[in-house]
Design a protein that fits this description.
The structure is a single chain. With about 220 residues, the protein is an all-alpha fold. The chain has one domain. It has twelve helices and no strands. Helix 3 runs parallel beside helix 9 and helix 9 packs antiparallel against helix 10. The longest helix has 25 residues. The protein is globular and about 40 Å long.
């Protein structure tokens, strides 16, 4: 299963439907948010794993213990695991969490009081996907996670670029390939979020994520 399959498949759609019913945000808007949040979370986890072996081992342990991928077959779990998802994001983004949420709120039109709880529902699905990929690829230690996560992002970028007519693929491609700013290797918040939300000439011409969302949402909310 590719990252795009996660976003557009049964798991992504079921979670989006649950979030729509709970928060009153359109299903398509939730799916578009997932298309941005999934690679962003994975990129942060990759950076942490590459910079700190202890972080890599802690992530490996967490994936083995709590995120074996079974949630992908039973996405109804996400509402009950929303608080857990919030804790995951606290760790992933650290002190940058409020900045990430604010940027995503501004660009998607999802209000700040809802963006955090919705991301909390999405996080267990993202972690379950990583856990399933870890099993499928036979990664048994933290030392292999950086390459695994990089491979997930690279595969999603290739798939998105191969299917540019799909607006969701366009969003994902922009997240993963947002011009030179996204390839500087610095802070993921500046690099990925900058590329995703307006870095690079293509995103600036289209109004960043908002312009891309307009393709799906008719101008957003």
């Amino acid at each position: 299963m590719s990252l795009i399959d996660l976003i557009t498949g049964n798991a992504g759609n079921e979670v989006a439907t649950q979030a729509e019913n709970k928060f009153g945000i359109s299903k398509n808007q939730i799916i578009a948010l997932l298309a941005v949040a999934a690679p962003l979370v994975i990129s942060y986890l990759r950076k942490k794993s590459q910079e700190d072996p202890n972080e890599a081992e802690a992530l490996n342990s967490a994936l083995d213990k709590d995120h074996d991928g079974s949630i992908l077959d039973n996405p109804s779990q996400v509402e009950a695991r929303q608080q857990e998802g919030g804790s995951i994001l606290d760790h992933v983004f650290g002190g940058e969490k409020s900045t990430v949420e604010n940027q995503l709120s501004q660009k998607t039109g999802i209000s700040m009081d809802k963006i955090g709880p919705i991301l909390g529902m999405l996080a267990p699905i993202i972690m379950g996907y990583i856990g399933k990929q870890k099993q499928s690829n036979g990664v048994t230690s933290g030392g292999g996670l950086g390459d695994l996560l990089g491979g997930i992002l690279g595969g999603a970028q290739s798939q998105a670029q191969a299917e540019p007519s799909n607006p969701l693929n366009d969003i994902l491609g922009s997240v993963l390939g947002g011009g030179s700013q996204a390839n500087t290797g610095g802070n993921p918040l500046n690099d990925l979020l900058g590329g995703m939300l307006g870095g690079g000439s293509q995103q600036q011409q289209q109004g960043g994520l908002g312009g891309l969302l307009g393709n799906i949402l008719g101008g957003g909310r």
